[in-house]
Every structure is written in C-alpha cells, then in structure tokens.
Amino acid sequence: MPKKHYPNDRENTVQIAIVFFAIVFFLVFVASIFKLIAVVKKSKFDGEHRFTLVVDIESSSKGPQIISFAPDAKTISLASFAESGQVSAHAVGKRIEAPIDGEVWVDDIVIDVSKGQDASSILLTLLSRYPSLRTNLTIIDFIRLLAFSRSVPKGSYVYELYPDAVDEVSSDKITTSLFLDSALSAEKMSIHIINGTGVSGLGNRLARLITNMGGNVISVTSAQEAIEKSKISCVQIDNALPYTCRRLSYLLGGDMQASDNRGISDVEIIIGKEGLSSLMY
Predict the structure, then answer these.
(1) Distance from C-alpha of 234 to C-alpha of 236, rounded to nearest angstrom
(2) For residue range 150-182, what is the model confidence (pLDDT) as tens digits?
(3) Residues of the chain with CATH 3.30.420.590
(4) What are 24-65's pLDDT values in tens digits?
(5) Domain 181-279, CATH 3.90.180.10 — does that match?
(6) Distance between CA 154 and CA 38 in Å, rounded?
(7) DSSP state for residue 237 in the 8-state scheme
(8) Which CATH architecture has domain 51-178?
(9) Residue 158: exposed, middle, or buried by beta-carbon count in 10 A (0-12, 13-18, 19+)?
C-alpha cells in the first residue's frame, strides 16, 4: 500500500525547510559581515588625512602617475615625470622623497594626469577593473577615494611635472607643494632622528622625507652601536598619542610608545635595522 501523507507531516516538513534555509541565510549573512569588517580593517585611506596613490600603466610609456588626496584641505594633487619610463612605480617614493600609501598596477587603460584627467573618472575606471588589478588597496579604499574625489571641484586640483635631472632643492619644493600633510604640519612637533642602522645617510634621508611632509626635524644623529628594532617615542597630548606619531609609526613600521620625558624633542625616532627596508623603497 502507498504510504499516506498527512497534513501535519507536510506542515512539519515545510517548517523544517524554512528553519534550515533561515539558518543558512543567517550564517551566510554573518560570514559576509565578518568579511566586510576584515576588509574595512585592512583599508588604508581614513578619509581625514592625506593619502598618496601611484598608478602604473604597464603597457604605457608615460610612467607612473601620482594622485594625492587631501581631505582636510579639500584638494587633489597630481604629478608625473618628464623622464617617463625611467622611473619605476616602486621607485616613486624615493624619487620624490614623500610617503606612498597606495600602489596600483594595471594594463590596457589610458591615464595621463598631465592632460587634466578627472581623479574621479580615473578611480571609477580602476574600480571597474578591481578584480584584475594588482594593488595593496581594498575595494573599500577605492570607493572612499572615489566618494571624496567627487566632492572636489576641478578648481581645487594642483598639477606639477617633475622635470629631468632636477636638483634636490627644486624637487623638494615640488614635493612640499603637492604632498604636504597639513595635519602633521599643524602639530609642529619637534623631531629627533637617531640612525641606528649603521647605514650612512639614512637618518638625513628620513629627515628630508619628514620635512617634505611638513614635519619639524630639529636634529639627526647616529647611534654609537647598531640597534635592531626601530622605535618611536612620543609625548602625549591630552593623554593620547598625536597624529604625528601615529603617521610616522605607520610609515616606519616601528614600535610606538608614549614618553613622559620630552628630552630634546617631542618625538624621538630610532631607525633600527628592522626599519631599514621600509626606507629603501
């Protein structure tokens, strides 16, 4: 005899199926939320401070294009190089002596900031190619940069061309005009740099980079003995570490600690051997 199905059995089966799919949906939703949180935590652009991006078009002879976003000043700076292919994307930071926060390598698109391209259109193109990009930025970074760039009128764009064989003084003037970090400059914290790597000139190079950012470097010395770990000691303001220290810690990758003793400066940076690679970009 065929098995009889009663109404209650069918209702129970439907209820079990609904509960099962509800649980699956809930787990997928929770997993998606955690994944989104992880992506947000990995994002680099905070929406408040200067953020500099290098875009390298691998099939182009134009060379790397630099786009720098300054939310606090509501401006966007753009720069390129007269020597074009002679500057690699990896060498841009060293060439201009300014921190590079994001890098993008892409092919088969046309970007030439010297032609006055709109930053939002560039970002929209990059965002549409996100799955195929080689970059250290998250999709959240691109979305936030795009949102900010759309709020900046073309009249607030600044463009400069780094000429061939430019001397350090002239290059630094261009860099400061384009990439000054106004939040770091406004804090006016005095900075003492100690080179503990044993590599001659590294302290002065860091001093040049920080000065180009708007920092106030008052002294550069060398340690008598090699130091392994980089470290940043900083006085607190209103029981909190100031932006200058957080920015420099992010740049150098060294340990950051609060200090009650000002010494000769508000900030003391010790460049150890472990911090060497971050300065040799």
Answers:
(1) 6
(2) 999 988 999 888 888 778 999 999 999 999 999
(3) 51-178
(4) 777 776 665 655 555 555 678 888 999 999 988 766 666 788
(5) no
(6) 34
(7) B
(8) 2-Layer Sandwich (3.30)
(9) middle
